[in-house]
Amino acid sequence: MADLQDDLRPTTAAGGLDDLAGSYPEEAVVAAESYEPVSDPDGEPLTRAHAILAAHPVADGYNGLPWALKRLSSYDLELGESIVDTDVPRLRSGHVGLLFWSLHLPEGLDGDRAVGATLEQLDLAKSVVRTCDEGLRPACTAGQVADARNCGRVAVLLGPAGASAVGDSLGILRQLHVLGLRVLTLTGVSWASEAGLTRFGEEVVREMNRLGVIADLSGASPQTVRRVLSLSRVPVLCSRSAARAIRPHPANLPDDLLAELGAAKGLCLVPLTAEQTGPTVRDVADHLDHIREVAGAHCVGLSGTYDSGAAHPQELGDISCYPQLIAELLRRDWDEADVALLTWGNVQRVLRGADFTARAAQQRREQSTATIAELDG
Question: What does the pLDDT average to over 14-26?
């Protein structure tokens, strides 16, 4: 228990992590190979968009396909399935290289029911990947994501899941990690609430760092966001957040939090939903422009939110439509380097940062035995 206040700042011998939250070692930064000019700058925007995406595919930060498939008695994602927004042909048309599969649950599930429902979704997600092995490949690390891409497959990373999936147990968190969970949303539980993180919530973040589970702060209170940004040695992300200055949705981030997220090298994944970003592709591009200006090009990514029940902007109706969005950004004079960061490089940086920090932390810190009763009781 003496280690409970350990903030995961390793010694220099463990890899120089003292300033990891603000300065990553070379292997945790976007590699030089992640961007090379690939197209004629005088070409048509949509043609250029396809060329850029062929080299720097989309890492889509939120996709609800596993839950959507629960209502289907049969499906064939490799041939094509029109009743959902996501299938293998459209993933290829949209140049998607990585999907984060959401394991979020309907409202009202908590305690043992939430844990059980999350386990069922994990089982379903793995079954879906197995049946689509020509198009999809499971991945838990940045290296496995790269391997899937090199094999011509779309990598599938499990998460985000809601914090209720963990209940009040670090042991459950560890077992979910063993089963493949890599992103956890820190909101909606007693230890991560509108009031911020409790002492047990802080210990959850430390254990997530040790495991390599990334914190998702979409929907979290400002107090929780700021405490996680100061505590986590792993870059965090917001899986479904746009700019509140443009559209005042509660899950969107105000400029002060966007700036703090950018300073901490976190990542804001902008959702392609009419409710949060607006009804047109131009509205989505406005959010991307604004976040890039406020937080930096290293802070912005994409979150399709397809098959989540959300309505999508015009021209972005399913997961094949990403080239339309990139073409709009090219019309706004986004350079190819920033587009490459937006679609692929920024997510890879966050994944590598999580892997690097977990390897270092596991060499110096045993798994936590803390309980919520001991810390918050």
Answer: 34
